[in-house]
Specification:
Blueprint: E1 18-28, H1 31-41, E2 44-49, E3 52-56, E4 65-69, E5 74-82, H2 85-92, E6 101-102, E7 110-115, E8 121-126, E9 166-174, H3 177-188, E10 191-197, E11 203-209, E12 217-218, E13 222-226, E14 231-238, H4 242-254, E15 258-265, E16 272-277, E17 283-288, E18 292-293, E19 300-303, H5 327-339, H6 345-355
Parallel strand pairs: 1-4, 5-8, 9-13, 10-19, 14-17
Antiparallel strand pairs: 1-5, 2-3, 3-4, 6-7, 7-8, 9-14, 10-11, 11-13, 12-18, 15-16, 16-17
Length: about 350
C-alpha cells in the first residue's frame, strides 16, 4: 500500500527515552464517586491528600492514577518515567517546559512538566521510589485437548473486584495528528508498532510503544488517533487473565456501571478486552494477554475499519467512537478545519462513514 503522507517514524536521536507510562491525571468534581468506580474497577487507594486522590495496581508503582477535585471534569494528561536524570535536564530545556521540580506525591522523585502540541500535560518523572507489590491471584491453569495440567482440581473464582496489576496504555484523539505523533517520538523515544491508514493512505491511528531495546515492551503504551479535536479516548489496565476480565464484567454490571464494549480480542495488540465508563463517561479498559515486541520489530501498516478493531466478539459499536455533538464540539470542528493541516471535510466524512 502506497502512503501519501508522512507516517509516524522513529526519531534517530530522541531528547529522552520513556521507560514506562507512570500515571494518568484527571479532574473530577466528586472524588468519592470517582473512587467508588475505580475501586469496583479494580484499582486500590494509595493515598488521599487534600483534594487529590491517588490509586494504584498490585505492581510496585507507588500510584498510577491521580484524581484532582475540580468543578469541570476532564482528562489532564499523563506522566512518563524516564531513564536518567539527564533526561529531565534535557527535557527542561524544551520550549514551554518547567524547571526540574521535586514531587511530594507518593513515591517522591522529580519531574519536568511539558505540554504536547495538542494541549495535553505530559510529566517526565525520574527518581520515584518503588513500593512493595501487593499480592494477586495466579493466572488460572488452562486444560486443553492437548494437555490437562489441572487434574482433580476445579476453578472457583472469588466474586470480588478484579485485581488491576498495572496501567497499560492510554489512547488520545487529536486534530493535529502528525505534529503530536512526531513530538512523542522526538522527545520520549516512542516507536510505532502499527499504523492504521485511511483509503487515501493517510494515517488514522498510530500504536506507539516504548523503546526498551532487547527488553520486550507492550505493543502500545500510547495510541494516537485522528479526530476533529484533542480528547481522551480511553485508558487500559492489565488483569492477570481472561477469567479476571470476565469476572470484572459481571461485577461491574451488578454494581450498575455503564458498559461500553466487550468482551472481545483486539487484532492489533491481541489483547482480550472489556470497556467500561466512569461516572463522567470516560472509558476504562480491562485487558489481558497483550502482544510485546522488542525494539527491532518493524511497524505494520493496515487499513482502518470498525471490523479491524477485533478478531472476535461484538464488532465495535458506533457509540464507542461517536462524539457528543454540542455547540463547543461543532465550534472545534470548524476551528480545527481551518487550522490543522491533517483535517479536511473529506477526511471527516470518511472517518464518520467508517466509525459511524
Amino acid at each position: 500500500m502506497k502512503l501519501t503522507t508522512i507516517q509516524p517514524a522513529r526519531h534517530p536521536n530522541p531528547t529522552a527515552k520513556a521507560a514506562a507510562l507512570a500515571y494518568l491525571m484527571f479532574d473530577r468534581p466528586d472524588l468519592d464517586r470517582t473512587e467508588q468506580f475505580l475501586v469496583d474497577f479494580g484499582l486500590r487507594r494509595a493515598k488521599r491528600q487534600g483534594d487529590s486522590l491517588f490509586l494504584r495496581g498490585t505492581d510496585s508503582s507507588p500510584f498510577c492514577y491521580l484524581v484532582r477535585r475540580a468543578q469541570t471534569p476532564r482528562f489532564v494528561g499523563m506522566g512518563f518515567r524516564v531513564k536518567a536524570w539527564e533526561d529531565l535536564e534535557a527535557l527542561s530545556l524544551l520550549q514551554g517546559a518547567s524547571d526540574v521540580q521535586e514531587l511530594d506525591w507518593p513515591g517522591g522523585g522529580y519531574r519536568v512538566c511539558l505540554t504536547d502540541p495538542s494541549g495535553f500535560r505530559v510529566d517526565a518523572v525520574h527518581g520515584q521510589a518503588r513500593t512493595s507489590a501487593l499480592p494477586h491471584r495466579a493466572m488460572l491453569r488452562f486444560n486443553s485437548p492437548d494437555a490437562a495440567p489441572r487434574v482433580n482440581r476445579t476453578h472457583r473464582l472469588p466474586r470480588s473486584a478484579p485485581e488491576v496489576v498495572r496501567l497499560g496504555h492510554v489512547v488520545l484523539e487529536l486534530a493535529n495528528y502528525q505534529e503530536t505523533c512526531a513530538w512523542y517520538m522526538q522527545h520520549f523515544g516512542l516507536i510505532p508498532s502499527d499504523v492504521q491508514v485511511l483509503p487515501d493512505g493517510s494515517p488514522a491511528v498510530a500504536f506507539l510503544r516504548l523503546d526498551l531495546g532487547d527488553t520486550p515492551s507492550d505493543h502500545h503504551t500510547l495510541a494516537l488517533a485522528q479526530g476533529f479535536a484533542p480528547m481522551y479516548s480511553h485508558s487500559a489496565f492489565e488483569l492477570v487473565d481472561a477469567d479476571a476480565v470476565g469476572m470484572g464484567q459481571r461485577l461491574l454490571r451488578e454494581r450498575g456501571w455503564k458498559h461500553a464494549w466487550g468482551i472481545g480480542r483486539h487484532i492489533l495488540g491481541s489483547q482480550i478486552f472489556d470497556y467500561w465508563q466512569d461516572p463522567w463517561g470516560a472509558k476504562h479498559e480491562h485487558y489481558c494477554d497483550g502482544d510485546v515486541f522488542t525494539a527491532d520489530e518493524p511497524a505494520g501498516i493496515h487499513p482502518v475499519s470498525r471490523e479491524a478493531m477485533s478478531q472476535w466478539g461484538q464488532v465495535m459499536p458506533s457509540s464507542f467512537t461517536r462524539p457528543e455533538l454540542t455547540l463547543s464540539s461543532v465550534a472545534a470542528i470548524v476551528r480545527n478545519l481551518r487550522r490543522s493541516p491533517d483535517l479536511s471535510l473529506s477526511k471527516l466524512r470518511t472517518l464518520a462513514k467508517i466509525f459511524g
